[in-house]
Amino acid sequence: MADTAAARRSRISPERAAELYEAVLDLLREVGYENLTMDAVATRTRSSKATLYRQWGGKPELVARALRHNKPASLADIDTGSLRGDLMRMATLQDDCKMEQDHALMRGLFHAIHGNPELHQALRQLLIEPELTGLDAMLRRAVERGEVAADNPALEYVIHMLVGGFAARELIEERTVDQEFLITYIDAVILPALGV
Q1: How far apart are alpha carbons 72 and 42 in whole angstroms?
Q2: SS3 call for 147
Q3: Tell me, what's the pLDDT at 169?
Q4: Which pLDDT band, with edges at 50, 70 and 90, does 2 fall under?
Q5: How far apart are alpha carbons 162 and 146 in whole angstroms?
Q6: How far apart are CA 68 and CA 126, in angstroms?
Q7: What are all long-range contacts of 76-80, with beta carbons under 8 Å and residues at least 24 apart?
Q8: Half-sphere exposure of residue 24, counting CA atoms within 13 Å on the CB side?
Q9: How many whole angstroms separate alpha carbon 86 and alpha carbon 138?
């Protein structure tokens, strides 16, 4: 079955898929998830709706794959040789403008998740779980290098600290997260909690 799905997906070239993903993200920014339709995507990309459904199955998977494609790098690909270096690399993957655009997009999608279990599942499977796996590998390497004690209780809360930093800055300061904030936050909160 997986081979059949892969064969179906291979009908669209990587270049064409990238164009489609960019159009999907543009539409998401313009109208939001609830108002995004496969008809609109088909019109914007000069594709048939049948092709879109055959390739992606539906709106939730198409949106999740577009977001995944939009990521500059996966956390699993970051390995600078130190935990601080890895976290700083993560913090500087996107410039401030792109970070602000993506934050607004994700905020809207997280709101849409509450009424759409298919979207939640697609985002979790294609976007969130791979990043959690990459973060776990990053932290495991830090433990193996002796940078962080294996029994440090903060290890299981690093993702919570990161997500909390994003949410709190907007809620408390009414500002989106930028590189400067992330770098300072990592040095002042996350690394000390891990004993680094």
Answers
A1: 25
A2: coil
A3: 84
A4: very low
A5: 22
A6: 7
A7: 76/130, 76/133, 76/134, 76/137, 77/134, 78/134, 78/138, 79/138, 79/141
A8: 25
A9: 7
